[in-house]
Design goal:
Blueprint (H helix, E strand, L loop, with lengths): L1 H4 L20 E2 L11 E2 H8 L5 H15 L7 H14 L2 H8 L5 H18 L3 H13 L18 H12 L6 H17 L12 H28 L1
Helix pairs in contact: 2-4, 3-6, 6-8, 6-9, 6-10, 8-9, 9-10
Length: 232
Amino acid sequence: MSNLADTGVESSGYAPPASGPRSVERLSAPGGPSGYEGVDIGAVHAFRRGRLEPAREAVLADQVAAVIGQPEPPCTPIASAMRQVMQHVGGDAELLAWLDKFPGRPQLITRVLTLVALLDRFGDCRPVVGALREFRMRAPDPPSLAGHLPDVTGDAALACLGGEIKMMLGEDDLAPAGRLAMAAAGLLADLGPHVAKVPGAEELGALAERSRTGLREALAAVEEPKAAARAR
C-alpha cells in the first residue's frame, strides 16, 4: 500500500543490541506529535515473539501509528522496526487491520488513510471528476470543504484533497484531519449515485459511506475523552 511505502518500511540496517539486561530502548527521530517517544524496540521484539502484554501492545500500536502519520519517511532504524512489526502481522493490509483494533490515534489514522486511498483510487476517474465538476457548478462547496478543493476541478482535485488530509496526520491534534476526512467521505458518498452504473466506479457510494461511518466512530473515540476532560 502506497501510504505505508512512504514510511520507508522496506528499508533495513538496524541491528538489535546484544542480549542481556538493559533499559527500555526507543528508536526516536526529530519531530512527531506531542508526546511522541519513538518506537520501543524491546516491545517490537516481544511482539514478534508473541510475548507482549496487551497494555504494551496498545502503546506500540500508538507509536507505530504515529510513525505512519508523519509526512516524512522515518530514519532507517525506525523503518526497520516498522518492517519487523509489519512482517509479524503479515503485510500492509494486515498492519492496518491490527492498528484498527486500537481506538484513538491508531484507529483514526488507519481510517483516514483508507479514505485517502479512496480519493487516490477514484480521483482520476473521468466520470467521477465529471460528477464532481457538475456538483460544484450547481452549488458552492460545503463549508467543511471550503478552501480545501482547487478552484479548477481537474483530475488532481480529489488527490490534492487527499494529500492535504494526509499531511494533517503529522499534527499534534488529529481531530481536524479526521473531520476533513469525514467531509471528503461525505462528498464521495454524494457523488456515488451519479457514477453507480459506471464500470469501475459502481462501488464508490458504498465504500464512501462505509468510510464515513468508520471515521465518525474513530473520531468520537479521540474527541470524547478530550471533551470529558474539559468538562471536569
